[in-house]
Write a structure and sequence with these properties.
The complex is a heterodimer of chains A (226) and B (286). The longest helix of chain A has 16 residues, at 177-192. Chain A folds into 2 domains: 14-90 and 164-226, 3-Layer(aba) Sandwich (Rossmann fold), CATH 3.40.50.300; 102-162. With 226 residues, chain A is α/β, with parallel strands linked by helices. Helix content of chain A is 34%, strand content 26%. Chain A contains 7 helices and 10 strands. Chain A has helices at 2-13, 56-64, 106-114, 122-131, 147-159, 177-192, 204-210; strands spanning 18-27, 30-40, 45-50, 71-76, 79-80, 91-94, 165-169, 196-200, 213-218, 221-224. With 286 residues, chain B is mostly helical. Chain B is built from 12 helices and 2 strands. Chain B has helices spanning 2-13, 19-46, 55-58, 62-75, 87-93, 95-123, 136-144, 146-151, 160-165, 168-196, 199-211, 252-274, and strands at 242-243, 247-248. A two-stranded antiparallel sheet of chain B has the order 1-2. The chains are: A alpha/beta (226), B mainly alpha (286). The A-B interface holds A 61, 64-68, 83-84, 86-89, 91, 93, 95-96, 98-102, 111-117, 119-120, 122, 157 and B 3-4, 6-8, 10-11, 14, 83-85, 87-96, 275-276, 278-279, 283, 285-286.
Chain lengths: 226, 286
């Protein structure tokens, strides 16, 4: 009991990296986010569970800056993400099933994305490819990738820039048992290195194993579970 | 340093050459092959050599301008370029830089399209080609003799008013410059409209502008439409020409200033809108 109280006090004294307060979002007359409150801290994995269409992806898109809130606010590192604000910086993102250039190899896809903000670094990209279990030398086109390979590539692009924040919507989709275990290790390692990870998953086991805090989303309402 | 530069150029070039652009280039190639058909027959029969200055004459033909307009409309029909493969790029570029990059893509595609048009307007005549700084006998014959047009079913054969006004290189450069500017302007109009009013409105507007490119010279009541028909401005032989008593074609100064002004306005409007727009992705392949 005392330990729990100490933890709570420690958390209150820390500043959240991502803070969502009273967030509301409408599509037409339909309310897709309703009074959502969420704090995510550095070095922790925050998990969100919920059915399809419950509003998880919309929340993630609002945090990333693809969508704007109709009410409430999102703060990232103390900076408010208002309408007219740019996209979320310093974030690696997987939202829905990411689309790649189908006619290019996985390595080429990573190169094109990496070079937008960084100097070309083949060795680093090869290491990232290997980390997620893909062969950097493979000439196989992404359109011929299996779903699991695409997902590994999606994870590779999210982690390749060593971003401080990771927004991962169903990152384990399509991965086999080994793949899931490997990726769990990757995420645990990133957590150890102090990254802030927000993760949505259908898989209860992923959430149980990986997450420090768990929320459940239903009909746009987010409530803490753990 | 070299690798850094190369990587960034590669990243920037992504999206310039996609499937849609390649099909547009192919359509232009087919259109030019059809244009060359009758003219080649004429050149063969009369054993004439043609100089590489035919492109400005192509655009004196209303139907060619309309077809070109439709091809441009197709080329930019994926505005505002929100295919899902862009999702991972937007977050890395940021809204402003992404919008500017997309405007750059429009510019680069327009330049490539103009060069492509000129290259095939030369290469397809190869058996009959000769190099001269003058217009040459073939282009003069095509421009001044209507009988050839009917006999050999020549399409876009030549324009006497271009010959009367310009030196060949001057006409080609003016035509190429305007071709790039007008194509950029149409791309920007489409992108701007797609952001403010939706993609359907953007495509409809581009198609209407293409339709306006048809030759209106025989219809004095609607000739005023030349002033709002950008594709007709590609006919470099018509500037300031008197048509009937009451009508006059727009001048080069009008065309250049309106095109330049609209490009600047649309560029700013796109960037402003992009700052507040919500990204709704579609599943089209880039």
């Amino acid at each position: 009991m005392v330990e729990n109280t100490d933890q709570k006090m420690e958390q209150e004294s820390r500043q959240p990296v991502i803070r969502v307060q009273k967030a509301e979002k409408y599509f037409g007359k339909q309310k897709v986010l309703s009074d959502v409150n969420l704090d995510c801290y550095a070095g922790e994995i925050t998990g969100i569970v919920g059915h399809n269409g419950s509003g998880k992806t919309v929340l993630f898109k609002c945090i990333c800056g693809y969508f704007y809130l109709d009410a409430g606010m999102i703060q990232v590192n103390g900076k408010e993400m208002n309408k007219g604000q740019d996209m979320l910086q310093n974030a690696g993102v997987i939202i829905e099933e990411p689309a790649f250039m189908g006619n290019s190899s996985g390595m080429r896809n990573l190169e094109c994305l990496y070079c937008i903000r960084h100097a070309y670094d083949r060795e680093h990209l090869e290491a990232v490819m290997m980390k997620v279990g893909l062969d950097p030398k493979s000439k196989k086109r992404v359109k011929n990738y299996s779903m699991g390979m695409r997902q590994r590539l999606a994870i590779a692009q999210a982690i390749m820039e060593d971003q401080e924040i990771l927004i991962l919507d169903e990152p384990m989709n399509g991965l086999d048992k080994n793949g899931v275990a490997e990726m769990r290790e990757v995420f645990q390692e990133l957590k150890q290195r102090g990254k802030t990870i927000l993760l949505a998953s259908h898989n209860k086991e992923d959430i149980d194993v990986l997450c420090d805090h768990v929320y459940e989303m239903e009909m746009g309402v987010l409530r803490p579970v753990r | 340093m070299g690798k850094k530069w190369l990587g960034r150029v590669q990243a920037g070039l992504y999206g310039v050459v996609n499937g849609r652009f390649c099909i547009a280039l192919l359509l232009v190639f087919v259109m030019e092959c059809i244009m060359v058909d009758g003219t080649s027959e004429f050149l063969r029969e009369w054993n004439l050599r043609i100089t590489p200055w035919m492109l400005p004459h192509y655009f004196s033909d209303g139907l060619f301008r309309v077809y070109y307009g439709f091809i441009v409309c197709y080329m930019y029909a994926d505005v505002p370029f929100m295919s899902r493969s862009e999702m991972l790029r937007v977050i890395r570029y940021g809204r402003f830089r992404w919008a500017v990059a997309k405007e750059g893509v429009i510019g680069l595609r327009s330049v490539l399209m103009a060069v492509w048009l000129w290259i095939w307007s030369v290469l397809l005549y190869i058996p009959h080609l000769t190099f001269s700084r003058d217009w040459g006998t073939a282009i003069r014959s095509l421009s001044y003799t209507l009988a050839n047009t009917e006999k050999y079913a020549i399409w876009g054969g030549g324009s006497a008013s271009i010959l009367g006004r310009y030196e060949p290189i001057q006409a080609l450069l003016l035509c190429m410059g305007l071709l790039v500017a007008v194509t950029v302007m149409i791309g920007l109009i489409m992108m701007m409209l797609s952001l403010y009013a939706g993609r359907t409105v953007a495509i409809t507007a581009a198609m209407v502008l293409s339709g306006l490119a048809i030759d209106l010279s025989g219809r004095p009541m609607i000739m005023k439409l030349y002033y709002i028909s950008p594709y007709t401005w590609l006919d470099v032989g018509c500037y300031d020409r008197q048509a009937f008593v009451i009508n006059r074609y727009p001048g080069l100064q009008y065309v250049c200033s309106i095109t330049g002004m609209l490009i600047i306005i649309f560029t700013i409007m796109i960037v402003m809108r992009m700052k507040r727009t919500e990204f709704k992705w579609n599943n089209e392949e880039a």
